[in-house]
């Protein structure tokens, strides 16, 4: 299966060379797939199942093969197809080379409502395009979504070759294993291929292809090495590392631009960049800053040296302002969510007497700390009762107070559970964390810890 | 409202009201006098109000665009720069390696009602400068994938820019809302905008770039269903090579909201940049400065109304829009009043006073501030003021002129006092100008404890601080061009110059008196002597340094200025003409529907004003509406109410007034059908009002939904 001969399966050499160079570190899989597909007029494997984690190059490899070798195909992302009709339309349009445009009034190739129509229409298109001799590839990306559609779709796609009587190869791309697809009857076992995570060396190889112009490849390689040494433990996603590498590269080159170091001065460069990468490690995956903002931040950090505070404000430290009563409503909601209802007497009644936790109670609490179990639903009455007992002064139950509750729900600080009928005693949950709550409570001088059963 | 779950099983018929169209009322129709007639005076008031409000509204609108100018400019610049290398050519397609969607996260703050205005401003700004293609999405329209896609595509393709020169109207309804459709449309519209045969006479407002980006604004990101949002972002990123998409997230809470909604795999498809909008408190201060703290508009708010509007803002919603609405409402109410007649410019006011008849004059004479003013005059003048209309008119004119001049001086001086005190520890006179203004509106500010505290603190101020604070005062005063405060500025500047010229001399003197006692002390040896000396020196009033003398002088001067120019408007005669002080506004602005319903049910006399309904001891007479009786009875029950017992009690109560003869006992077994129907109706009404609901926990019972009661 070596990729040596001038024509493999009837494909010209230049195209193959292009293909291999566009898929670094995936040569084996490309070769394997090419072998599976065979020559274009061969009857190829009718169903292939490719799975692997995100960023392992599944879609890239498949689309490179199909595009570079100019094979007839349809490439559909199942996320886009929220109804089965859209799925049919997308595939048929691509197979028939129809794109919706003003010329055709943005219409589809043909109206297609069910699997039966789809199979029929597909056959006609293939005949119209005189592709009977060639293999038609239908790639379904994010194929796990197919399971949520009509029951017949997945089995039918797996047998599309049989149903149409044409040379059709269906490729499913997904992140989960084939076993999770088995449901119902009529499933045809596909050929399963696994895309493993890239190894560190493979990552290096791929990243080195990003080398910006003006720098030697070796220099960029050494930089990527440093980046990987910092981030590899935290994150192996190719896209994420790629993003981080490009984000921090200007900083890495800064000493060179200033003339303080040369490209060979690896150690010095490393010392320069290392703290910045550590900082970037805190925001991995967050993408809260664009590269331009990141650079500005780094510049700011260089000038005032208080960068840690700077980063904190960016990674969403609580700096939210809420109206005064909203804060108390939120506190009340939190208390209602995390305190058992039977303890309300003790916290909010003036002369409830000192109740002590018994040993038995303590043991029970230890097993089920509500902080660990998460918020519990509470009725609106309880929220209001707690609100009135914690808020200072007399607050009239005006429409404004109630609208603040729904405002908090739209802000996702609280969620409504169960029925959405307001008359039926709506129930809510508070969805914010303790840290957030404490900072909110601090702004209104309310010692929330004293009111929490878990901390008594 | 689900009628099917009603306690009463019945069929409800709702007849459509045929042909009964609402007669549209002109705002002027509401302006009527006590008898309900429209007169010349009411018309004049209405006109004055409309002119005044239009002016004020224009100013506020200008402010609205101004306040967010900086962040909007940044955002528009960002959106314009997001797709620099975008190209629709075939060969470039694979070049776009990263599939990150440029995203602007606009943190707007939690003032929900204002968001609509912010985003429509942003949209029009984007459309003016960057791109004609802007789609606005709201969470309530986007509950499913289908809705969000069709919303986006409808808004893009329905674009007037596209359709204005074509005759072939795109029928969006028939098109399936998918991304390929959008791609086809975009490629086409780009081609069309480039084609040279476009009529040159038709000029666009501004020239967009070759590939104007498609901006999708999500106004309330928190409200979007997470799954829909994730899918939508994934789809968008798929088409990034063919569509220059830009997302704008309106985030009310914090940027972390994005991460609670999106998993890593999706959020890594975004390339976010954060934009922080101005906090609404800042906006509010500017609105207050522009409208209330300005001599441009004669209309002012009294202390209680102002405080109420502020409270609603700070305690309830942070919404400037609501504040402005409250302001408008107060203004409208003010002009309903006869006094509103004079709340206008000087010339108009003078001519109106001249034209007043006796009745109208009497109305003004009755105002409490004017009566107070009259009482201070000599008896002869008092009689004239009350009887001589001509003289009264002259007095009115001059008094209102005094009020005008009071306003022209009051605001700059108010700013000056604020600049002086806002930096003091613990803010004795408030941190914000609005707090200080509220104090001034309430009473004479120098009588408050805060003012005394502030001046005590000022009297301890170090020289550098004092100089800088005075500098700020001068700066504030110089900002006022329309009022004549040059005297005050001159005076303060002279003092500042004196402070400067004190120079090092003062420090030397400061040191001298300190050293002498030290020498004396060092010579003494006996403890007793030392004690005596110390006691003496403590008794001896410490000699003030030059600086301290000067400081006291400056502060005395300023104190004098504040006392002359900052009296509370409530102490001035005829302030009712400008200041709206009626506190019924609370009922309108901060409505309490539940309290109103409960009042109506427990005390029907309050609303119905029927003498037979009057009761002293809180009992309900049997003449009360059925629903009130049912309500009263249900208050006595626990969480679950037995319907049969309730009915019996109801029947008892209704019959209580009648003669209890033999027929009553026989009725106990079988209830009159009419009464039963009335009871059922009352119960359904209570259910509709949300006091009870049907329950399955016990047969023939309903559950109470409110707590409290008897």
UniProtKB/TrEMBL annotation, chain A:
Q: Which residues form the Orc1-like AAA ATPase domain?
A: 24-171
User: Which UniProt keywords are given for this protein, alphabetically ordered?
Assistant: ATP-binding, DNA replication, Nucleotide-binding, Nucleus
Any single GO molecular-function term of the entry would be: DNA replication origin binding
Instruction: From the record, give the transmembrane residue ranges.
Output: none
User: What does UniProt give as GO cellular component?
Assistant: nuclear origin of replication recognition complex
Compartments it resides in: Nucleus
Return one Gene Ontology term, BP aspect.
DNA replication initiation
Q: Which InterPro entries match?
A: AAA_16, ORC5, ORC5_C, ORC5_lid, P-loop_NTPase
Keyword Nucleus among UniProt keywords: yes
Q: Which intervals hold domain ORC5 lid? A: 220-287
Q: Does the keyword Protease apply?
A: no
Question: What superkingdom heads the lineage?
Answer: Eukaryota
Gene3D superfamilies recorded for this chain? P-loop containing nucleotide triphosphate hydrolases
Sequence ranges assigned to domain Origin recognition complex subunit 5 C-terminal in this UniProt record: 322-452
- Tell me the protein family, please: Belongs to the ORC5 family.
State the protein's name.
Origin recognition complex subunit 5-like
Q: Which species is listed as the source?
A: Branchiostoma floridae
**Gene encoding this chain?**
LOC118416627
Automatic annotation (TrEMBL), chain B:
* Keyword Phosphoprotein applies: yes
Molecular function terms in GO for this entry? DNA replication origin binding
Where, subcellularly, is it found?
A: Nucleus
* Protein name in the entry: Origin recognition complex subunit 3
Q: Which GO terms describe its biological process?
A: DNA replication initiation
Keywords, comma-separated and alphabetical = DNA replication, DNA-binding, Nucleus, Phosphoprotein
CDD domains xrefs: Orc3 (cd20704)
Residue span, Origin recognition complex subunit 3 N-terminal domain? 6-337
One GO cellular component term noted in the UniProt record for this chain: DNA replication preinitiation complex
Q: Where is this region: Disordered?
A: 502-525
The similarity annotation says: Belongs to the ORC3 family.
Q: Show the taxonomic lineage.
A: Eukaryota, Metazoa, Chordata, Cephalochordata, Leptocardii
Q: What the protein does?
A: Component of the origin recognition complex (ORC) that binds origins of replication. DNA-binding is ATP-dependent. The specific DNA sequences that define origins of replication have not been identified yet. ORC is required to assemble the pre-replication complex necessary to initiate DNA replication. Binds histone H3 and H4 trimethylation marks H3K9me3, H3K27me3 and H4K20me3.
What quaternary structure, including any partners, is listed in this protein's UniProt entry?
Component of ORC, a complex composed of at least 6 subunits: ORC1, ORC2, ORC3, ORC4, ORC5 and ORC6. ORC is regulated in a cell-cycle dependent manner. It is sequentially assembled at the exit from anaphase of mitosis and disassembled as cells enter S phase.
Ranges where the Origin recognition complex subunit 3 insertion domain occurs: 353-581
> Spans of biased composition, class Basic and acidic residues?
515-525
Main subcellular location: nucleus
Q: Does the keyword Phosphoprotein apply?
A: yes
- Origin recognition complex subunit 3 winged helix C-terminal domain spans which residues? 594-707
């Amino acid at each position: 299966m070596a990729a040596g001969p001038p024509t493999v399966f009837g494909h010209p050499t230049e195209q193959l060379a292009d293909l291999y160079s566009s898929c670094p570190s995936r040569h084996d899989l490309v070769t394997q797939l090419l072998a599976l597909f065979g020559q274009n007029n061969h009857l190829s494997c009718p169903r292939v199942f490719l799975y692997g984690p995100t960023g392992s190059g599944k879609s890239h490899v498949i689309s490179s093969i199909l595009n570079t070798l100019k094979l007839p195909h349809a490439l559909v992302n199942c996320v886009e197809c929220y109804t089965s009709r859209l799925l049919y339309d997308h595939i048929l349009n691509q197979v028939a080379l129809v794109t919706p445009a003003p010329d055709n009034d943005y219409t589809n190739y043909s109206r297609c409502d069910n699997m039966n129509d789809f199979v029929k229409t597909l056959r006609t298109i293939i005949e119209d395009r005189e592709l009977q001799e060639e293999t038609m590839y239908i790639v379904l990306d994010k194929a796990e979504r197919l399971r949520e559609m009509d029951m017949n779709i997945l089995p039918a796609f797996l047998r599309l070759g049989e149903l149409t009587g044409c040379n059709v190869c269906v490729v499913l791309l997904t992140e989960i294993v084939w076993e999770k697809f088995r449901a119902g009857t009529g499933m045809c076992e596909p050929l399963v291929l696994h895309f493993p995570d890239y190894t560190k060396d493979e990552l290096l190889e791929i990243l080195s292809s990003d080398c910006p112009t003006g720098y030697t490849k070796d220099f960029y390689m050494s930089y990527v090495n440093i980046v990987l040494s910092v981030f590899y433990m935290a994150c192996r996603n190719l896209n994420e590392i790629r993003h981080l590498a490009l984000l921090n590269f200007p900083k890495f080159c800064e000493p060179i631009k200033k003339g303080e170091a040369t490209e060979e001065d690896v150690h010095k460069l490393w010392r320069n960049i290392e703290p910045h990468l550590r900082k970037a490690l805190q925001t991995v995956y967050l993408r809260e800053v664009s590269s331009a903002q990141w650079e500005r931040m780094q510049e700011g950090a260089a000038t005032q040296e208080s960068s840690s505070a700077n980063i904190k404000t960016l990674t969403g430290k609580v700096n939210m302002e809420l109206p005064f009563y909203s804060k108390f409503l939120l506190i009340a909601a939190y208390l209602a969510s995390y305190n058992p209802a039977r303890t309300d007497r003790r916290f909010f009644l003036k002369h409830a007497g000192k109740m002590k936790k018994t040993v038995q109670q303590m043991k029970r609490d230890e097993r089920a700390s509500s902080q660990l179990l998460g918020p519990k639903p509470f009725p609106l009455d309880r929220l209001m009762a707690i609100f009135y007992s914690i808020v200072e002064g007399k607050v009239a139950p005006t429409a404004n107070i109630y609208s603040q509750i729904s405002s908090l729900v739209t802000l996702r600080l609280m969620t409504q559970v169960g029925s959405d009928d307001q008359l039926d005693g709506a129930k809510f949950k508070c969805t914010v964390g303790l840290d957030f709550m404490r900072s909110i409570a601090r702004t209104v001088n309310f010692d929330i810890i004293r009111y929490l059963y878990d901390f008594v | 409202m689900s009628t099917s779950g009603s306690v009463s099983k019945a069929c409800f018929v709702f007849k459509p009201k045929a042909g009964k169209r609402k007669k549209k009322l002109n705002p002027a129709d509401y302006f009527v006098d006590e008898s309900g007639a429209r007169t010349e005076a009411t018309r004049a008031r209405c006109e004055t109000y409309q002119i005044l409000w239009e002016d004020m509204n224009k100013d506020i609108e200008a402010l609205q665009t101004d306040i967010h100018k900086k962040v909007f400019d940044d955002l528009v610049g960002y959106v314009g720069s997001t797709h620099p290398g975008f190209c629709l050519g075939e060969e470039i397609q694979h070049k776009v390696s990263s599939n990150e969607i440029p995203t602007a996260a606009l943190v707007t703050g939690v003032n929900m009602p204002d968001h609509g205005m912010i985003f429509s401003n942003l949209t029009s700004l984007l459309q003016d400068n960057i791109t004609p293609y802007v789609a606005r999405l709201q969470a309530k329209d986007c509950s499913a994938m289908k809705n969000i896609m069709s919303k986006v595509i409808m808004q893009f393709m329905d674009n007037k820019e596209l359709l204005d020169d074509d005759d072939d109207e795109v029928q969006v309804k028939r098109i399936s809302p998918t991304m390929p459709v959008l791609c086809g449309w975009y490629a086409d519209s780009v081609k069309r905008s480039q084609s040279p045969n476009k009529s040159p006479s038709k000029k666009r407002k501004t020239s967009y770039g070759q590939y104007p980006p498609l901006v999708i604004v999500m106004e309330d990101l928190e409200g979007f269903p997470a799954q829909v949002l994730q899918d939508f972002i994934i789809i968008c990123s798929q088409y990034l090579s063919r569509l220059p998409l830009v997302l704008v997230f309106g985030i009310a809470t914090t940027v972390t909201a994005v991460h609670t909604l999106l998993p890593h795999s999706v959020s890594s498809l975004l390339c976010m940049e954060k934009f922080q909008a101005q906090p609404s408190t800042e906006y509010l201060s500017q609105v207050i400065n522009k409208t209330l703290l300005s001599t441009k508009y004669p209309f002012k708010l009294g202390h209680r109304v102002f405080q109420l509007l502020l409270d609603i803002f700070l305690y309830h919603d942070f919404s400037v829009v609501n504040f402005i609405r409250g302001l408008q409402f107060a203004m409208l109410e003010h002009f309903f009043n006869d006094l509103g007649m004079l709340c206008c410019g000087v010339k108009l006011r003078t001519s109106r006073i001249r034209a007043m008849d006796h009745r109208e004059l009497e109305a003004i004479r009755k105002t409490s501030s004017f009566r107070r003013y009259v009482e201070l005059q000599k008896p002869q003048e008092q009689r004239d003021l009350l009887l001589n209309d001509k003289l009264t008119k002259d007095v009115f004119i001059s008094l209102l002129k005094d009020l005008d001049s009071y306003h022209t001086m009051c605001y700059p001086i108010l700013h000056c006092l604020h600049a002086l005190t806002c930096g003091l520890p613990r803010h004795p006179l408030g941190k914000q100008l609005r707090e200080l203004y509220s104090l001034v509106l309430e009473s004479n500010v120098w009588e408050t404890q805060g003012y005394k505290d502030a001046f005590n603190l000022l009297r301890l101020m170090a020289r550098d601080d004092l100089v800088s604070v005075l500098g700020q005062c001068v700066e504030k005063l110089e900002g006022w061009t329309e009022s004549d405060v040059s005297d005050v500025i001159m005076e303060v500047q002279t003092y500042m110059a004196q402070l400067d010229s004190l120079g090092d001399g003062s420090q030397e003197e400061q040191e001298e008196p300190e050293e002498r006692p030290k020498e004396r002390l060092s010579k003494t040896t006996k403890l007793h002597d030392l004690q005596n000396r110390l006691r003496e020196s403590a008794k001896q009033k410490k000699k003030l340094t030059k600086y301290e003398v000067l400081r006291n002088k400056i502060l005395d001067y300023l104190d004098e200025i504040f006392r002359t120019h900052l009296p509370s408007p409530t102490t001035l005669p005829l302030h009712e003409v400008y200041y709206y002080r009626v506190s019924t506004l609370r009922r309108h602005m901060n409505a309490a529907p539940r309290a109103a319903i409960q009042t109506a049910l427990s005390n029907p006399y309050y609303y119905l004003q029927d003498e037979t309904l009057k009761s002293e001891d809180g009992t309900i007479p049997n003449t009360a509406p059925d629903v009130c009786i049912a309500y009263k009875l249900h208050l006595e029950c626990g969480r679950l109410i037995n319907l049969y017992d309730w009915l019996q009690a109801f029947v008892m109560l209704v019959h209580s007034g009648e003669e209890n003869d033999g027929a009553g006992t026989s009725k106990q077994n079988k209830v009159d059908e009419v009464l039963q129907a009335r009871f059922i109706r009352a119960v359904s009404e209570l259910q509709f009002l949300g006091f009870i609901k049907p329950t399955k926990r016990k047969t023939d019972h309903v559950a109470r939904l409110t707590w409290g009661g008897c």
